[in-house]
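FAQ

Q: What does a record look like?
A: Structure on top, sequence underneath. For example:
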């Protein structure tokens, strides 16, 4: 088991009092990618880093972090002076009601642009859903009356799946040597171990090549009729 975790304290530069407890790698102790509250705090008081304990396993570090947060207390719970917003460890339990409401409101107020939605959609394409995941989706919509807009989206989604059934040929990118033909993008994906989205993007000219570890080659794809 790796013993590469540390528990660290952030202290005010002005009077040395502890205002934040954390755990992670040594690099994380000095990292400034943190919450707005943390940045407001250090801009006002400055800060110094103290490595409380090192060479810990993850489980050991979590336990010490939880104990220290309980010892010093939290501002949001009015039990102490730490700006931590959880009890520590791997959970987010014991978030104060105020913090939960504020986070919920902030998420609802975020306007998701069409470009953002498109990127999220692309990131999920080609991922295989587990049987449990598919069953949960089915349960969630069972008995619900779908709107016409939702039905249209489902029709378009199914239409795009039909397109993946178009036959494609696979070639060596460097030599242009023909490797094999496949009855669909999905079949090529299964046999070659490439993501469907990678093959689709290559066919549409969005990428020049597709890396393949199974064949140890760089590939390119063409529709059968090309």
């Amino acid at each position: 088991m790796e013993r590469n975790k540390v528990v660290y304290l952030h202290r005010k530069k002005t009077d040395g009092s502890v205002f934040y407890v954390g755990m992670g790698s040594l690099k994380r102790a000095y990292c400034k990618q943190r919450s707005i509250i943390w940045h407001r705090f250090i801009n006002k008081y400055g800060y110094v880093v103290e490595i409380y304990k090192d060479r810990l396993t993850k489980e050991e570090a979590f336990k010490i972090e939880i104990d220290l947060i309980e010892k010093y207390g939290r501002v949001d719970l009015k039990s102490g002076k730490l700006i931590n917003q959880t009890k520590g460890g791997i959970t987010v339990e014991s978030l104060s009601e105020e913090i939960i409401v504020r986070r919920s409101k902030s998420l609802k107020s975020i306007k998701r642009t069409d470009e953002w939605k498109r990127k999220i959609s692309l990131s999920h394409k080609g991922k295989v859903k587990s049987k449990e995941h598919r069953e949960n989706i089915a349960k969630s919509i069972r008995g619900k009356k779908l709107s016409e807009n939702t039905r249209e989206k489902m029709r378009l989604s199914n239409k795009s799946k039909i397109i993946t059934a178009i036959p494609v040929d696979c070639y060596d990118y460097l030599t242009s040597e023909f490797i094999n033909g496949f009855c669909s993008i999905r079949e090529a994906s299964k046999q070659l171990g490439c993501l469907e989205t990678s093959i689709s993007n290559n066919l549409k000219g969005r990428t020049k090549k597709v890396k393949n570890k199974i064949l140890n080659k760089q590939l390119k794809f063409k529709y059968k009729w090309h």
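Q: Is there anything notable about this one?
A: The beta strands are 5-12, 18-24, 47-56, 168-172, 178-182, 210-212, 217-223.
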